[in-house]
Amino acid sequence: MAKINTKVTDQTDFFQGNDPKALAEKYGTPLYVYNERILRERCRDIKNLVTYPNFSVNYSTKANNNLAFLEIVQEEGLNVDAMSPGEAHLEMMAGFRPEQIFYISNNVSKDEMQYFIDHNIIMSVDSLSQLEQYGQLNPGGKIAARFNGGVGAGHHEKVVTAGKKTKFGINPEYIPEFKEILKKYALKLVGINQHIGSLFMDGDKYIEGVKAILEIAKQFDDLEFVDFGGGFGIPYKKLEDQARLDIADMGEKLSKVMFDFAEEYGKQITFKVEPGRYISAECSVLLGTVHSIKQNNIHKFAGTDIGFNVLIRPAMYDSHHDIEVYNNADETEEITVVGNICESGDIIAHDRVLPKMTEGDVIGVLDAGAYGYSMSSNYNCRLRPAEVLIRENGDVVLTRKRDTFEDLTRNLISIKK
Ligand code: LLP
Fold this sequence. Notes:
Layout: H1 7-12, H2 20-27, E1 31-35, H3 36-47, E2 55-60, H4 67-75, E3 79-82, H5 85-93, E4 101-104, H6 110-118, E5 122-125, H7 128-137, E6 142-146, H8 175-184, E7 188-193, H9 203-217, E8 225-227, H10 247-265, E9 270-273, H11 277-280, E10 284-296, E11 299-304, H12 313-317, E12 323-325, E13 332-338, E14 347-355, E15 362-365, E16 386-390, E17 396-400, H13 405-409
Parallel strand pairs: 1-16, 2-3, 2-9, 3-4, 4-5, 5-6, 6-7, 7-8, 8-9, 11-13
Antiparallel strand pairs: 1-10, 10-11, 10-15, 12-15, 13-14, 16-17
Helix pairs in contact: 7-8, 9-10
The structure holds ligand LLP.
């Protein structure tokens, strides 16, 4: 049987000849390592999802906002969504033009709306109350709106964003009032959007959501686009050979729904999808160092420098990430892998069977590229990690420096005279 130590990264040739221990030594840990080839492959998977001609893949920057990463996504011909002026600012820095950005707002100030009006970026409103405010600011303008089609899905209740329990979207029962407000301010509704939630592995759930939003779309004349949202899942349990999302099957079904809708609507409108995780998760491994091994009562712990300030998903959603251990151990043992933050919830992996570790070993947390760095923090005054990119030719380049003490203190103002 192949050793599990490096099984997944060997299969994908993730390090392309680079030794993860040497990368850890050169750049320090924790370290987010990205693979450009895999990133480009994922962009192309989704770009080629459907045969319908007017199709836009809007990468969801919230999953990973590294500038070099966005530059690659831009080169691959994807568009983007933005959740804030900050994201739009970064996207424009990466080379996206305003018309390639779709701003999806949620409970925002008029100043924030004005930023997008000034930059000619189409925005989507999330309530009648926000539509009214937008109308006051930009009468006669173009607008999109997020609807709740009633179908939700996701890996955790915190990330289900449609259905009965969520704060997102406008319920279809309010469409008459919605139309009144459009009329009052002479607004042109150019598109509607939804996002059912994050991480589905069953494409049929997404298609169900697509059909629901298209029923809503039929109630508006002359739309330019309908955006189905993101949520495309990736297999986090690769060591257990978890199956991939069948995007070929999904693509076929989606294409049919799109062509059918266009025929009925009488116009080949644009359809958009908004994947974040699918594009960004699998092209990254988070490297860390084991600093201690200890037995506390029933648990054996490997203490590493990967605290939840660096990767919060396991602590926040009980998410599973496979772990590799870059040593030559043949033996395995059951161990709990933890970080260096002063909270008991600072656990990366519970009771996992892993190659036997010793102090100084380098480990890799797999599929760390989505909601990894982008949700990292300076909690415990820890420095956020560096990020490096393995180029297609195997060269490694630094794309984000590790924080310094100066970064930690730059906005602080002392009151001591
Ligand atoms: N569009 C909208 C409006 C969204 O709110 C999201 C994600 C996406 C697209 C992209 O979803 P994706 O394709 O990445 O599933 N932090 C959580 C995930 C939160 C997702 C929030 N919204 C996690 O680490 O699992």
